[in-house]
Amino acid sequence: MAERLLPGLERRLKAEVGEVDFGRFARGRYATDASHYQIMPLGVVLPRTIEEAERAIEICRSEKVPVTPRGGGSSQSGQTVNHSVIVDCSKHLNRILDLDVTGRRARVQPGIVLDDLNRQLKAHGLWFPIDVSTASRATIGGMTANNSCGGRSLRYGNTRENVLSIDALMIDGSKAHFGPVAADLSDMPDNSPLKPLARDLFALGAREADEIAAHFPKVQRRVGGYNIDALVPGRNDVNLAHILVGSEGTLAFSTAIEIKLSPVLGKRAVGACHFGSFHDAMAAAQHIVKLAPIAVELVDATMIALARDIAMFRPTLEAFVQGKPAALLLVEFAEEPDENERRLQRLHELMGDLGFGWRNSGAKWGGVVDVYDPKLQAAITELRTAGLNIMMSMKDAGKPISFVEDCAVPLEHLADYTARLTEVFERNGTSGTWYAHASVGCLHVRPILNLRLEKDVKAMRAIAEQAFSFVREYKGSHSGEHGDGIVRSEFHEFMFGKRLVHAFEEVKDRFDPEALLNPGKIVHAPKFDDRTNFRYAPDYAAMAMTTELDWSAYPGQGGGFQGAVEMCNNNGACRSLAGGVMCPSYRVTRNERDVTRGRANSLRLAITGQLGPDALLSDEMAETLRLCVSCKGCRRECPTGVDMARMKIEVQAARAAKQGLSLHERLVGYLPRYAPYTAKLAWLLNLRDMLPGAAKLSEVVAGFSARRSLPRWRSDIFANGSTEGGGSEVVLFADTFNRYFERENLDAALAVLKAGGYRVHIAKPADNSSRPLCCGRTFLSVGKVDEARSEAERTLAALKPFIDRGVPVVGLEPSCLLSFRDEVPAMLKGDAAKRLSDNAFTFEEFLAREAAAGRLKLPLKKIADRAMVHGHCHQKAFDAFSPVETVLKLVPDLKVEPIESSCCGMAGSFGYHADTIDVSLAMGELSLLPAVRKADANTLIVADGTSCRHQIHDGTGRDALHVARVLAMSLQ
Phi and psi (nearest 5°) for 377? Predict the structure, then answer.
């Protein structure tokens, strides 16, 4: 990694600003965005106030050091990477400053995330309608800098049309308010520092008016270059803020942005138009928009096929996709309900007029599937907005690459453009995937290339030059949504002409004469295919490594570990602040280090030697992974399937092999081995939480926080193995935690299964030893993979006679049972491990399956009116939470309410450690614990995870129940 050390600058910033990090790991985490570029910054500043941001920029200016403002870091064109000091606004500068509900306006800080803003606005019936696919992490500052558009730009326009004014810091230290002004500047005081600048800008606009009229694309989706069309004389809406919109942080630093708000959408109707031919779908778009929808979004066959392989999207596709379409156009209406219905009917008629029908074959096969259900509409939107990342889920070395992605052409040329570009892809030995905004002629297309190969880099330039020539021919825009950055800035002269590019340079020089604000973007840009700026530079290579788990689904070193790490494309979905699970530690700390993306970048840079020798086993890497709670949320919710929990095991295994385990880690990891002996001294060990000073002593000696009670040992442990009941066979796997701490859950499960008419086997060791079976999870949590493998082999030997004859294996603790689906097959290759994976069920999954098949006959009675349910992270990661709701609803008259929550914060041993208890408690306080406190005393609190129940008890004083106990209570 290139080094440019500036100790004087670092000292000044730390003395006067606050959160500053010039360390190699921090710089590496900010070296990439969602593009294929990587440029190491000089350092990172996270200002806590606007004043701190202003001071940081002033210090950098005095040191002649460039500055790059950054929000969510999800730019796809390389806008937010540079050899500069990164000013990250997303952690602290994220407040609403003023809200005018009546006037439908708000002033916000640049770092506020769009979804977070809209959650706060929803109570007032308002939203900011630039609904970009990255809404869960895109900041308003970033969207303004990029002139973002969103799926419903057909109705709401671009960010430019929705920004009213901007307060900005100029590079010379002056502050200015950019907003509406009179064309002659008569409403601006003569002593305003902005007046000379505005006069120069208007003069430039007047001088270049004819060039702008001749060469600026007329399509709605034009975000390339500077918006000097806003400066042309004769406009009725002169707004100086528009010159900053889309400027990518190259002209000024936005300190407050005033935005226009819109009423939230009411009931909508979606028509999913199916087509047997991609070309015909593109040709139909120009006719469909005449029905005045608010959006027409494309999903192509490649994206459909990839989405079917992603568990979270498969049910959505099954709900609305018929057959095997070559393309879908999702047509959305948002009028009054009756009018929505009328327009959907006209859509059906239009499809018929165009010759499409369900009974046809070939290109004219197709029709419309109506979607009125809001939940399904939301799921379809989630699928659609994840389109880019679904495409990036390919595990091969070649990936869909963004460089001609967001060209926009007039709708009448859309079909021809896509056909011609497809031919270009074929001539260059590749293919493309298509999706996004058919309504405005902006289709995201990414040809599949391997940018490690020189021939593919040459193909990239050939494709770009040909694609942009088509766009210019059609009088379209080469930059239709994702901005210029490094990808498209080089081509401005080809698209706009030399004179307008010179005008862009004049604008930059007038604002920033020393080129200190995000240099190299929009003007004076490097070549877009300069491989020294690529994430995979010419000398990029991973070191040889030996790994413990199976990574064979991916390419690269470590048996595929390299390829698994490189699946992170920096899209930033892990930075979501609400909904789902990932990434719980980031939601507490808001640090890039503590998000899946930050961890994956650190791993990639470490295994390729870019963070120095032995970086993988360094203390910095250990700190990077310390707050990863192995919730597995990323395994399901990361659109590209980055499994950080499994990657953490590999790093811990390597570190443990070199450095050994601490006492705390030994006590956690070896719990299943010493538990049979410790249980005999239950009364003695339980004194830890009773005797004054004992808890503090355990913190000093073994690292268990004195602020956290420990699970209470039981002397009446659950029996090692037996067979009870009659009927169909099932194996009950008794995990370590329920066996030694909460045997009542196993007793309850046994009672329920017997009452359901099942013959229950309690699995016992095949070697008849007295030590109970174990899944190996505790060993995995401390990196002792060999020990975990030994336990897994022992358990598999005990269960093999059952799974050989198809007997289901049922478990109560989600993290233990679901290890049979995840880590065990990764440790034990072979058919037996695969069959165990296929035959292992959580308690609720098994009962829900049996109930659906009509085989479950439980005599249940009413026990309560309401149950609030917290889902274990691993249940959510493996789509095993919905069966919990299904089974609880078997209880008569019980209203089941899932608690919208991420990780409870315990995450196995994480919540017990003195070093992590603060984050553990903060995770619980995000949503789970407040929700439980609000529940009345008669409401059942349900949680399947041992640790989850512990967190709820410690944080609220309420006792949560396993589903098995709820059902047992309900047995008549």
Answer: -60, -45
Of 406, 482, 480, residue with least CA distance to 443: 406
* DSSP calls for 505-535: HHHHHHH-TT--BSTTSSSSPPPTT-GGGBS
CB distance 251 to 230 below 8 Å: no
Alpha-carbon distances of 198 from 148, 178, 206, 507, rounded to whole Å: 24, 10, 12, 11
Residue that the structure tokens 């939230």 belong to: 264
Which amino acid appears at position 382 of this protein?
E
- Length, in residues, of the chain: 972
> Which one-letter amino acid corresponds to residue 31?
A
Provide the token pair at 79: 């806008």
Encode pLDDT of 855-877 as tens digits: 999 999 999 999 999 999 999 99
Strand order, beta sheet including 866-870 = 895-898, 866-870, 940-943
Taking each helix axis from N to C terminus, what angle separates 278-288 and 414-427, rounded to the nearest 10 degrees?
150
The token pair at 658 is 């070199």
Q: How many CB atoms lie within 10 A of CB 429?
A: 12
**Using CA atoms, how far apart are residues 826 and 822, in angstroms rounded to an integer?**
7
- Give yes or no for residue 193 having a pLDDT over 70: yes
Q: Tell me 412's DSSP state.
A: G
- The Cβ of residue 378 has, within 10 Å, a number of other Cβ atoms equal to 11
Amino acid letter, 751 = A
Give the CA distances from residue 898 to residues 437, 632, 949, in Å, rounded to whole numbers and listed in that order: 35, 19, 15
User: What is the distance between the alpha carbons of residues 504 and 510, in angstroms, rounded to a whole number?
Assistant: 10
| Whole-angstrom distance, CA of residue 961 vs CA of residue 950 | 11
| Amino acid symbol at 622 | A
Q: Which amino acid appears at position 22 of this protein?
A: F
Rounded to whole angstroms, the Cα distance separating 290 from 294 reads 11
Sequence-distant (6+) residues with CB within 8 A of 66 are: 60, 82, 83, 84, 85, 515, 516, 517, 518, 519
Please, which residues have CB within 8 angstroms of residue 166's CB and are 6 or more apart in sequence?
Answer: 144, 177, 178, 179, 241, 244, 245, 252, 254, 256, 257, 258
Whether the predicted pLDDT of 523 surpasses 70: yes
- What is the residue-averaged pLDDT of the chain? 94
pLDDT tens for residues 94-141? 999 999 999 999 999 999 999 999 999 999 999 999 999 899 999 999
* Tens digit of each residue's pLDDT (9 = 90 or more) over 18-65: 899 999 999 999 999 999 999 999 999 999 999 999 999 999 999 999
Evaluate whether 254 touches 110 at the Cβ level (below 8 Å).
Answer: yes
**What is the distance between the terminal CA atoms of the chain, rounded to a whole angstrom?**
68
Distance, CA of 623 to chain centre: 22
User: 15 Cβ partners below 8 Å, 6+ apart?
Assistant: none
**The dihedral formed by the CA atoms of 368, 370, 374 and 376, expressed in degrees to the nearest 10:** -60
Question: 619: part of which helix (H) or strand (E)?
Answer: helix 619-626
Which amino acid, 716? D
- In tens, the pLDDT along 702-733 reads 999 999 999 999 999 998 667 777 789 999 99
- Mean pLDDT, range 401-423, rounded to an integer: 91
636 vs 817, higher pLDDT: 817
Residue 277 CA to residue 274 CA, distance in Å, equals 9
Contacts of 141 (CB under 8 A, 6+ apart): 69, 71, 89, 93, 109, 110, 111, 112, 254, 257
DSSP string, 120-183: HHHTTTEE-----TTTTT-BHHHHHHHT---TTHHHH--GGGGEEEEEEE-TTS-EEEE-B--T
Over residues 779-804, the mean pLDDT reads 96
> What are residue 865's phi and psi, to 5 degrees?
-90, -30
Q: Report if pTM > 0.90.
A: yes
**Rounded CA separation 441/217 (Å):** 13
Q: What is the pLDDT of residues 633-675, one digit of tens each?
A: 998 888 888 999 999 999 999 999 999 999 999 999 999 999 9
How wide is the angle at C-alpha 465 spanned by C-alphas 460 and 466, nearest 5°?
Answer: 100
| pLDDT at res. 1 | 47
